[in-house]
Amino acid sequence: MDRQFQLSILPESHLAVAQRQQNQWRGGVTVLSCVNLIQPYSLVEQDNCFSL
Q1: Residue 7 neighbours by CB distance under 10 Å
Q2: What residue segments make up the domains of the chain, in order of their start?
Q3: Are 24 and 16 in contact (CB under 8 A)?
Q4: From the centroid of its chain, how far is CA 51?
Q5: In the predicted model, is pLDDT for residue 51 greater than 60?
Q6: Which of 46, 40, 45, 32 is nearest to 6 (CA)?
Q7: d(CA 34, CA 13)
Q8: 33: which residues sit within 8 A by CB, 6+ positions away?
Q9: Helix H segments across the chain?
Q10: Any residues with CB less than 8 A from the CB of 46 and at least 6 apart, and which?
Q11: Residues 20 and 29: beta-carbon distance below 8 Å
Q12: Euclidean distance between CA atoms 8 and 27, whole angstroms
């Protein structure tokens, strides 16, 4: 999982956005996709993402 978090820190946010969109179509947002869009080191932002 460390590698995934390192990738999320990179300026490749468009990948995270695409993942979130796909998850939204499924009817649910995964924790990783949500955290990647906001802050990969802040799990508190999870709640905000699920609230949306």
Answers
A1: 13
A2: 2-51
A3: no
A4: 14
A5: no
A6: 40
A7: 11
A8: 16, 19, 20, 23
A9: 2-9, 13-26, 31-37, 45-51
A10: 31, 34, 35
A11: yes
A12: 22
The tokens 């695409």 sit on which residue? 18
State CA 22 to chain mean position distance. Answer: 12
Q: Which two tokens stand for residue 38?
A: 């906001």
28, two tokens: 């649910």
Q: Amino acid identity of 50?
A: F
In the block, residue with structure tokens 């468009």: 14
Tokens 């499924």 -> residue: 26
Residue 45 · residue 38 · CB < 8 Å: yes
Summarised one tens digit per residue, pLDDT across range 4-39 is: 555 555 455 556 666 665 555 455 444 455 555 555
